[in-house]
Amino acid sequence: MKETLALVYSVFKIRIGTAIMLTALAGIAVAPGPAPEAWQIAVLALAVLLSSASAGAFNMYMERDLDARMKRTRGRPFVTGRFTANGYWLTGIGLLLVTAIAAAALATNAVAAFYVFLGAFVYGVVYTVWLKRRTWMNIVVGGLAGSFAILAGAAAVDPGLAPAPVILAVVLFLWTPPHFWSLAFKYKDDYAAAGVPMLPVVVKDKTAARIILAHTVLLFALSLLPVLYGMGWIYLLGAATGGGWFVWTSIGLVRNPSAKTAMINFHASLIQLSLLLVAAILDAWLI
User: Fold this and answer.
1) Exposed e or buried b for every residue in 31-56, given b needs 16+ CB within 10 A?
2) 254: Cβ–Cβ under 8 A, 6 or more apart, which residues?
3) Alpha carbons 132 and 198: distance in angstroms, whole number
4) How many CA atoms lie within 13 A of 281 on its CB side?
5) Per-residue confidence at 287, pLDDT binned at 50, 70, 90?
6) Which residue has the higher pLDDT, 285 or 212?
7) 261: number of CA atoms within 13 Å, CB side?
8) Is the dihedral of CA 206, 210, 211, 213 positive or negative?
9) Given pLDDT bands bounded at 50, 70 and 90, which one contains residue 272?
10) Is 214 buried (19+), middle (13-18) or exposed (0-12) by CB count in 10 A?
11) Based on the number of CB atoms within 10 Å of its own CB, is 5 exposed (0-12), middle (13-18) or buried (19 or more)?
């Protein structure tokens, strides 16, 4: 039973879903206006987690052929046969998404629910089905998935959307490519073997590193702008510290493009996002 639960956890990508749920909470925090009731926040957070889980499972279901050709992913349940890819899985994934959207709509409003849907649709269909196997721009467009979670949270406060959450959504949109490209840098041979045109596969190492740095510098600069729209010193401290570290490690990747520096940059991206989101939430709730 314990092993089965671990496999279910991996299929639904709960760890990633938890991070996306945190972005929704940050969206609520940075949106000006009275926050929803605690139960509404809890339901919306759960809805975002469930929608992300449905998209993650759909992604793993659809990519089982790619996963079988990559050393990093060939042990996933749909590849090994521990789980059988069939119509029951698709039905369950669909019901999970419908439940998430309905819960968000009932607890908050239709606009927030629509953003919850868009996040899952972009990752599950636009990124996974339409773009991943066709273009290196796949993860650039796919980065919108996380941005919609921020907008969902903000729309729960005010469907009209203020500047601060919109800027934060753009920051997350810019964050996803360098985060994922850094990981793909290390596993570029895997992606090449699977025929997936990730940026480090289709351009030279130095070029990929420079593009990653450009994204990082831009997202760092934009992450400071919410201070002009009401965010305080806690947010500024988190954004400056995490963003500054991410830029520094990206410079290191340009200086020495390698699997080692790429993974340093990958972990720096996680630190940057964590500090940014936690600081946004604490800034709104403590100041």
Assistant:
1) beeeebeeebbebbbbbbbbbbbbbb
2) 206, 209, 210, 212, 213
3) 8
4) 14
5) low
6) 212
7) 18
8) positive
9) very high
10) middle
11) exposed
Kindly list the structural domains of the chain, giving each domain's residue range(s) and its CATH number in brackets, ordered by start: 2-286 (1.10.600)
d(CA 28, CA 153): 5
pLDDT digits (tens, 9 = 90+) for 31-66: 998 999 999 999 999 999 999 999 999 999 999 999
Phi, psi of 3 (to 5 degrees): -65, -40
Residue with tokens 């729309």: 155
Q: Give mean pLDDT, residues 134-139.
A: 95
- The rounded radius of gyration (Å) of the Cα atoms in the chain is 19
Listed in sequence order, the residues at least 6 apart from 281 whose beta carbon sits closer than 8 Å to its beta carbon are 22, 25, 26, 29
Q: How far is residue 175's CA from residue 164's CA, in Å, rounded to a whole number?
A: 16
Q: Is the Cα dihedral 171, 175, 57, 118 positive or negative?
A: positive
Both structure tokens of 216? 């990082």
Residues in the chain: 287
Residue 34: phi, psi to the nearest 5? -65, 135
pLDDT of residue 19: 94
Whole-Å CA distances, 97 to 10, 42, 148, 175, 200: 17, 17, 15, 25, 33
Structure pTM? 0.95
What letter would DSSP give residue 35? Answer: P
